[in-house]
Amino acid sequence: MDIDLEFMKIKKRIDDFTEFEYENIAEAEVFTNNFELLLLELRNLIEKALRAQNEALSIKALTLLAENTGCADDMRIATHFITCMQDEKLLSKKAYEAFYQNLNIGRWE
User: Fold this and answer.
1) Are 7 and 61 in contact (CB under 8 A)?
2) Cα separation of 63 and 10, whole Å?
3) Which of 74, 77, 82 is nearest to 100 (CA)?
4) SS3 53
5) Which residue intervals of the chain are DSSP H helices?
6) Radius of gyration (Cα) for the chain, nearest Å?
7) Which of 46, 74, 82, 83 could form a disulfide with 69 if both were Cys (CB 3.0 to 4.6 A apart)?
8) Any residues with CB less than 8 A from the CB of 8 and at least 6 apart, and which?
9) Angle between helices 25-51 and 55-67 in degrees, nearest 10
């Protein structure tokens, strides 16, 4: 599958998740588990884009990941992922900054 098309499908699914409302704890747990799997797919796509040296797509996908990093556990996982990409020298300064400038953690400050 074309990597840009794959990104659009993941983005659409994330957008659909943000509009989902659940009525009980069981639904919330299912939602959380499914959303975590979707973010894993997004991280895999980011890694694929970085390895393909597709910086434009990498930045779009990193921005999407940042916008959907909402809690401390999400941040720990995202930071570990970013660190791994840096260690492999796959992450440009521009991509790194795009991620951190778009983090959805303003409410923590």
Assistant:
1) yes
2) 13
3) 82
4) coil
5) 3-18, 25-51, 55-67, 72-87, 93-101
6) 14
7) 74
8) none
9) 160
20 or 28: which leads in pLDDT: 28
| Gap between the Cα atoms of 41 and 7, Å rounded | 9
Interatomic CA distance for residues 14 and 35, integer angstroms: 8
Q: What tokens were used for 14? A: 């994330």
* Joined tokens for residue 76: 């720990």
Across residues 56-85, what is the average pLDDT? 92
Question: Is-contact 91 50, C-beta < 8 A?
Answer: yes
As a whole number, mean pLDDT of residues 24-36 equals: 89
Tokens of 83: 């660190």
Query: Which amino acid type is present at position 52?
Result: A
pTM assigned to the model: 0.87
